[in-house]
Amino acid sequence: MKAVIMAGGKGTRLRPLTLNTPKPMVPLLNRPCMSYIIDLLKRYDIHQIAVTVQYLPEVIRQYYGDGSEYGVQLIYAEEDMPLGTAGSIKNAAHFLDEPFIVISGDALTDFNLRHAIEYHKQKQALATMVLTQVDTPLEYGVVMTEEDGRVARFLEKPSWSEVFSDTVNTGIYVLEPEILDWIPAGKPYDFSMDLFPALLANHEALYGYVASGYWSDIGNLHQYRQTQFDMLDRKVGVSIAAAEVLPGLFVEAGVRLPSRIRLSGPAYIGSGCTLYPSCGIGPYTVLGESNTVHSNSILERTIAWSGNYIGEDCDIQDALLMDRTIIASNAQLQEGSVIGSGCTIGSKATIRQHVKLWPNKTVPTNGTLHTSLIWGDAAAKPLFSSRGVAGIPNVDLNPELVTKLAAAYGSTLPESSTIMVSACAHTYSSLLKTAFAAGLRSVGVHIIDLGTVSDEVTRNAVRQEKADGAVHLHLAQQSPMMNMVVEWMDRLGLPIAKSTERKIENAYWQEDFVRCHADRVGSCKSYTHADNDYLDALAQHIDFSLIRDANFTYVLLVAPCADLELIQRWTTYVGGTRMMVQQVKDQSTNLHEHVHNCKAHFGVYWDGEGKLSFVTPKGFLLSTDKVALLTMLALAENGTKAVLGVPASMVGSLPAAVASSGLRVIRTKESLRSVMEATVGLPFSPFAHRLYMLSLILQHLAMTNTSIDDIAAELPNSYTAKEEVSCHWNEKGTLMRCLMDWVRSNGQAAELLDGIRIQSPEGCVLILPDQDEPLFKVYAHADSPTQAKILAHNYASRIVQSHQQLRR
After folding, report:
1. pLDDT value at position 9?
2. CATH 2.160.10.10 domain position(s) in the chain
3. For 394-404+415-508+515-528, CATH number?
4. What is this structure's pTM?
5. Range with the largest mean pLDDT of 259-263, 697-701, 802-806
6. Which of the listed residues 19, 103, 213, 793 has the most CB atoms within 10 Å of its CB?
7. d(CA 210, CA 167)
8. What CATH code is assigned to 2-217?
9. Residue 605: enclosing H or E segment and its boundaries?
10. Residue 317 dihedral angles phi and psi, to the nearest 5°
């Protein structure tokens, strides 16, 4: 059998390590990562190997040559342009005249390849994916298989709500040569995004083999370090090219070890290193070739490539040094710092936690570096939550961060793009809006400043004015404190796609965006009538005169985050008697009492997340779910022919009038983008435009001349209960797999649109891993509140049981 080593990746998230080094050549215990892959192939008698190269190909060619020095035969397939993972294999088609195995040159594994090959032959597969189980599957392709091993579902880089298993694609494949017929020549084509979906769609023999053993995709700096620590701990079955002179202490030839030295394993010391008396080499330190460590300097959990010079009395903790760096005496490198090649750190200088230096930088004597020079931390917590970038005002989200975030965003946009910016009424939101606008303008993006408006006004404005996108900064109520949210919108007013989030996040961490020339900064102009334009747009689709004629009396309470000015303007459109329109801190204010005392037709509470609930004159509370049903009824009985996207967690039974109308209701994923994309034939999505939703309901009340109590009585008796179950972040994928196994073993049908949706005779249950918190949410819909609570509790208990089994 032949093999293909994919070695064309740039390793962007590993920068600065990969600025001048292809990712497969990044060293692990002083040997290139790809060398361990060659060793693995040789172990299973695979010696004819094609190497696909694209980024810095000469570095790989010069090191390995024709492979004879390493006991293999190597040929190289170079790409003139990036061809994708599958396209790069097609580029080596002339070599692949028999079954072959594909493996990444930038991952470390000790999988038994013979077992995978035998499985492939036994199944008579066209393609076999080698799978493994990981704690956090978000950065991989999640794979589900049938009982016979045939791949049933594949999802590349899912969100947490889409994680149906902890079993992922390792990028190792056993393939028949006929697979090449599926791959077009000379153009980008990807295994995960193109080939495997095509095989699934055509019901081809695509199988998944779950391998046992170690596998690490060295995708970021944290994983790069941890992989080497695992090697020192002998968690991976690879050959270490050094003598184990003491348990856990590996030393190459030509090392000068003084008699007085503090050594604590596990550790690795490469050839040609010079260690002076009284220096300390602590646990999990890896020194490549020809490093010098002077007296009284201490290194712990530190990886240093080659040719570094470390002076006396230095303290280096949990750091990563590339090559040829000079660190003068008494310097201090704190946890997570990364030093590029050829840097100079002056005497008594301090590099703070998680700071990175671009190659060839200098930190002066007594200097303290608090922030990265050019580079950011790619291993940090993801920037984007389910709602955008969120954090505590002036702590997590401060003007400096927001300016940098805006510049990163601007660098992903076409030249001379125009972006709208807006903010809620809070003073700090306005401050951040100014900072964000400055960041965008600094990279040449033009700004339209909407001022103080709501997110729904911004959504309308960006679509109406045909801008290239918009950003809205606002406070969101998240007990016990407020959160600041930076919310992105595309040119249609939808939340930006996940792919766009990734581009912004990558640009932010990499900091490789370039400020424009001072003469070419972006322009800025104001747009002061966005509120009026939005209300006018509503008036084109809502019969406000009909609502005014109904002369409603109402109470309207809104959370502090809501745009009170816009809501008050809207009340002039609906007329009637507004007994109370005011901001309150929470719903504990007795809305029912206000409605009763004012003899109002209804009361509305507008919460901190923009959701609506109603109180009827008889004191019934119509929750968010009931308000959604009321909105559907209003659209259906008005003769609306459209498609309405509704979050899956909300949909229980539909009103009979909806089922027989021209309104089609479809369940979507929980994300607002999914809801809005699915909505077709309406001017606005009611779930993104609360004033539109509220106006539809009032129009329906006026049109039918009935009370909200009477209409509520017509709604289906569908009740929702919700429970939450905490877990660790890294247990989510495994728990989802356990839950799916349990569901299938009980013969239950499950829908995997967003989380796991199960229909039972007692009702419907949705199990949803939370996007932003380490927990599961369980939504249950049933015909009675008691049954809904029982359902939610039973399935929450099932998660708890699975969690406990994992801990045993």
Report:
1. 81
2. 242-369
3. 3.40.120.10
4. 0.65
5. 697-701
6. 103
7. 8
8. 3.90.550.10
9. strand 602-606
10. -120, 120
SS (H, E, C) 403-433: HHHHHHHHHCCCCCCEEEEEECCCHHHHHHH
Contact 602, 614 (CB under 8 A): yes
Q: Which pLDDT value is given to residue 375?
A: 42
- The amino acid sitting at 175 is L
**Alpha helix (H) ranges present in 335-452?**
399-411, 427-442
Higher model confidence: residue 523 or residue 605? 523
Percent of the chain with pLDDT over 70: 96
Residue 424 CA to residue 472 CA, distance in Å, equals 8
Tell me which DSSP letter residue 335 carries. Answer: T
pLDDT at residue number 807: 67
Q: Where in the chain is the domain with CATH 3.90.550.10?
A: 2-217
Reply yes or no on whether the pLDDT at 256 is more than 80.
Answer: no
Domain with CATH 3.30.310.50 in the chain: 719-807
If we measure between CA atoms, which residue out of 394, 407, 534, 396 comes closest to residue 464? 534
All CATH 3.40.120.10 domain ranges in the chain, comma separated:
394-404+415-508+515-528
| Helix (H) or strand (E) run with residue 474 in it | strand 469-478
**Token pair of 641, please?**
């022919």
- Please give the helix or strand (H or E) that residue 736 lies within, else none: helix 732-745
> Which residue from 457, 473, 325, 333 is spatially nearest to 399, judged by alpha carbons?
473
pLDDT tens digit sequence for 183-209: 998 889 999 889 999 999 999 999 999
Average pLDDT (26-45) is: 95
The residue with tokens 């179950």 is 725
**Which one is the CATH code of 242-369: 1.25.40.10, 3.40.228.10, 2.160.10.10, 3.40.720.10?**
2.160.10.10
CATH topology of domain 719-807: TATA-Binding Protein (3.30.310)
